[in-house]
Design a protein that fits this description.
The complex is a heterodimer of chains A (about 270) and B (about 290).
Chain A lengths: L1 H10 L18 H37 L4 H16 L2 H16 L11 H26 L3 H9 L4 H31 L17 H12 L5 H27 L20
Chain B lengths: L12 H8 L3 H35 L4 H13 L5 H24 L8 E2 L2 E2 L14 H34 L2 H9 L4 H31 L11 H9 L15 H31 L5 H9 L1
Antiparallel strand pairs in B: 1-2
Chain lengths: ~270, ~290
């Protein structure tokens, strides 16, 4: 117990470069595996949260863009969504990393792009924006005609109509699917350190450390289930948060008519 | 490849590119595309089979079988799939070696897990340490196929389970009224009708499967990602007749375009299949076709 507390104090923030530099090399304890893999989860949460928040804004713009009457805006949005949804995230990571490597020679200002914390974040941000953009687009298309007509009858138009009627209804309709998207996004963060982006000073995400232990011990039956456990926990937390938001969005609707969150199978990107 | 390729340093742009793109290593890259297509061609039917068995088991009236089916369909939810890919390959490998070990070397007394090592007797190694190189490659590829099939079989089981439930109950009851047994209603009524409900989910799954193929790289197969990294890296004149800078970006751009094209073609084909399947069905899609005709 004493020993485990010491391990935790040594390695709990190891993934972000705080604490003991040297990773354990022999005689791996269960405590070390739990601590280091948990420490890696910091990165998963970091990537997932920031990409989701930034992606939300872009996703709404892309969804609105796809319904635009302007040919140019509509085509641009459609292509953006097609490119990021039609190709594997894994390849996107590789391509982006090598693109950023080439950009590096342009100006030293662009240096941080090749580091995972920024480069991978940008890819995840664009990727989730495309996926959620498509979800929001679908929701925009299924807004009841009566709602929009009622808004017109009240003389609402332009930005006010969007803010008061279209946007909240869209969010409400899209929320169950968007919850799934958020969960998949967090799962997708595990790809970061297995694509082009290098882990600096062995500070990687949860799967990075799990892979480290599995390689060193030839025993996949301990580290990978630990990762699975952490992710199930993270998924439950996400469902909790999104469920609360869903209740808030649906608060004016009779309980039996509310759209319920439904867990769907996960999707590889 | 071409006769003018003997001395690349003298070549003009176009010929140089033609020669460059047909070097032995590039042919490996093209074979790797074949590997990806082969993986898709083998995995898709096997995964569908696994999915069918899983869905059938989940509907079974025998409780342990039902638990097995339900467990299989739900285990892949909630966990990142790449963790599954990394896990299954080692786990399956060790499982096979362990079974062979028990079978081939019954009088081996040392424990198999010695600290950090997984040790089986030499006869049980897979593939045998003196096996040919191609056997190692085939073994690795088969492990990858099996892993993909297990993971995607679980997804497919999910889709098929829902599709089986979507077949209108009245259809089954009609079959029963004609005196069909459970087995007969299952095979003659439910299975032929479930596909139209399953197809949207299955086509989605096919897209996902396409996009999962780069993960072969993580399983240690020399696939397109591997060769793109190999070939794109900076080459100096000392080691190759075709020196160039860091071209990995362009190679991955090419892969990106390949996947986009593949996705687009699949979309078109699957739309056609859907059109054909909905023909004459008692769904809104089928009704729309009837009215249009």
């Amino acid at each position: 117990m004493e020993e485990c507390l010491q391990t935790i104090s040594q390695y709990a923030l190891r993934s972000v470069g705080i604490g003991e530099r040297m990773l354990p090399r022999t005689d791996f304890t269960l405590c070390q595996q739990f601590t280091l893999i948990g420490s890696g989860m910091i990165w998963n949460v970091y990537f997932g949260t920031l990409a989701l928040l930034a992606g939300f804004v872009l996703a709404v713009s892309v969804a609105v863009g796809k319904t635009s009457e302007h040919m140019l805006i509509r085509k641009a949005s459609e292509w953006f969504i097609f490119v990021f949804r039609g190709s594997p995230l894994f390849i996107q990571f590789f391509f982006a990393y090598f693109l950023f490597l080439n950009l590096k020679s342009v100006s030293s200002f662009l240096d941080p792009l090749t580091a995972a914390w920024l480069g991978a974040l940008i890819v995840l941000f664009l990727n989730t924006a495309a996926y959620s953009g498509e979800i929001f687009y679908g929701a925009l298309k299924s807004i009841p005609k009566g709602d929009v007509e009622a808004a017109d009858a009240y003389g609402l138009s332009g930005m006010i109509k969007f803010r008061r009627i279209t946007f909240p209804t869209m969010l409400r309709l899209a929320w169950p699917a968007y919850t799934n998207e958020a969960i998949f996004l967090f799962h997708a963060t595990t790809l970061v350190y297995f694509s082009g982006f290098p882990a600096r000073q062995q500070g990687g995400d949860a799967l990075y450390y799990a892979n480290y232990f599995a390689d060193k011990t030839f025993n996949p039956f301990i580290p990978y289930p630990i990762v699975a456990g952490y992710f199930i926990l993270l998924t439950l937390i996400l469902i909790g948060i999104f469920g609360a938001a869903n209740r808030h969005l649906n608060r004016h609707i009779a309980p039996e008519q509310r759209s319920r969150l439904k867990m769907r199978m996960q999707v590889i990107r | 490849m071409f006769s003018f390729c003997t001395d690349p340093s003298t070549l003009e742009n176009f010929q140089w590119v033609a020669c460059y793109l047909t070097t032995g290593k590039h042919l490996n890259l093209y074979y790797a595309f074949g590997t990806v297509l082969l993986l898709l061609a083998i995995t898709a039917p096997i995964a569908l089979g696994f999915g069918f068995m899983g869905a059938t088991a989940a509907r079974s009236s025998i409780a342990p079988l039902r638990w097995l089916g339900k467990g299989y369909t739900s285990i892949v939810r909630g966990v990142p799939d790449i963790a599954f890919f990394l896990f299954f390959v080692i786990a399956l490998d060790q499982a096979f070696e362990y079974i062979r070990h028990r079978w081939k070397c019954p009088d081996w007394t040392d424990p198999i897990r010695q600290g950090n090592d997984f040790l089986v007797c030499a006869d049980a190694k897979l593939p045998l340490s003196n096996a040919a190189q191609w056997l190692h490659e085939v073994y690795g590829f088969s492990l990858a196929v099996l892993t993909f099939s297990i993971v995607f079989g679980a997804f497919a089981a999910n889709v098929l389970f829902g599709a089986m439930r979507a077949v209108p109950r009245a259809q089954i009851e009609t079959g029963e009224a004609y005196g069909m047994t459970t087995r007969q209603t299952f095979w003659r009524i439910m299975v032929p009708q479930m596909w139209v409900y399953a197809l949207p989910g299955l086509s989605n799954l096919w897209m996902v499967l396409i996009k999962a193929t780069p993960l072969l790289f993580l399983l240690g197969i020399e696939d397109i990602v591997y060769w793109a990294r190999e070939l794109g890296g900076t080459k100096t004149p000392r080691f190759t007749e075709y020196p160039h800078g860091d071209w990995r970006m362009w190679y991955f751009l090419f892969l990106l375009v390949f996947y986009l094209g593949f996705t687009k073609v699949s979309e078109v084909v699957l739309d056609r299949i859907m059109l054909r399947l909905t023909h004459g069905q008692a769904t809104t899609g089928g009704e729309a076709q009837r009215k249009a005709a």
